[in-house]
Amino acid sequence: MTATLERGEAPAAPVAPQTRFDISRYLVTIPLAIVVFFAGYPLVRVLAQATRTSTGSWGTETITTTLVSSSFREALRNTVTITVAATVGCLLLGTLVATLIAFAPFRGSGLASKLIDVIVAMPSFLVVLAFVFLYGRSGAAHAILGDSVDFSTFLSSPVGVVAAEVTFFTPFVIRPLLAAYSQLPPAQLNVAASLGASPLRVFAIVLFPEIVPALAASGGLTVLLTLNEFGIVAFTGAKGVRTIPTQIYTTGIVTADVPAAAVYACVQIILSLVLFGGLRLLARRLAGRRGGRV
After folding, report:
1. Any idea where the domains of the chain sit in the sequence?
2. What is the tens place of the pLDDT at every residue in 76-134?
3. For the domain 78-241, what is the CATH superfamily, name and number?
4. What are the angstrom distances between the C-alpha of 154 and each of 130, 157, 200?
5. Angle at 231 between CA 228 and CA 235, to 5 degrees
């Protein structure tokens, strides 16, 4: 460079590195655009229908009329009640069954575990069909007990809907709990048993803290599934049990009131998003506590 300056020649400019076109950075936009189109566009259309008034203009008349109606309050109350009752029932029954299969294996426990996987793969209306064969007018319960007990009202009541949902969604709790139990070190149970702790105390002190994340995950899944369940309520013939999913179908298909059905759909979407956000926050807090404890 010194010789170049002595001869009065300008130094050569540094050569910029050649940038390569990385197509992988832009490939993510393709599935993102597909998700936005197939998920975002229907949501926009639903919101647009919810703001459509009876005269065809834009406004909040349909939203206000629907939200203050007695049918909406009844549907919202039934949806929340059935969701909470079914989720609690699934958690209690699922915890009991998973604990028995994992730590008190009985004859046929392996077959029961396989049947749990089969139930998960089945559609929900088959459970309702089984309930009809059991509790219907020509079912097994009626054949055994006769006319002394009428189970026909049980199927079409909120209790029957909750029982059917607990039957169908309990395997969604059992399977994660069995996975959590399989990762538990046997030494903890042996130490607790050697110290003379009762089975209930062993479960409360040793087992329960270890399955809290699995319970939270399975409970969150059950909440979302029962909240949006339509098939069980419809196939039980529970005409007096109005829920938001059934109201969406009745209002939009039967009575052809699409704007009102869109309002119900918006409420259902908001409930699902709020629950999903709360469950994600709960999962992060549980993960943080476990990380801090470790």
Report:
1. 78-241
2. 898 999 999 999 999 999 998 888 888 776 676 677 777 777 777 777 777 777 777 77
3. MetI-like (1.10.3720.10)
4. 14, 5, 34
5. 145
Altogether, the residues listed in the chain come to a count of: 294
How is 180-222 classified by DSSP, letter by letter? HHHTS-HHHHHHHHHTT--HHHHIIIIIHHHHHHHHHHHHHHH
Name the percent of the chain lying above pLDDT 90.
5
The pairs formed by 70-74 with CB atoms below 8 angstroms and a separation of 24 or more are: 71/242, 71/247, 72/247, 72/264, 72/267, 74/242
Both tokens assigned to 63: 């939203």
d(CA 98, CA 104): 10
Under 8 Å CB-to-CB from 286, ≥6 apart: which residues? Answer: 212, 213, 216
Angle at 248 between CA 247 and CA 252, to 5 degrees: 110
- How close are the terminal C-alpha atoms of the chain, in Å? 61
> Which residues, in sequence order, are CB contacts of 163 under 8 Å at separation 6+?
131
CA atoms within 13 A on the CB side of 260: 20
pTM of the full structure: 0.75
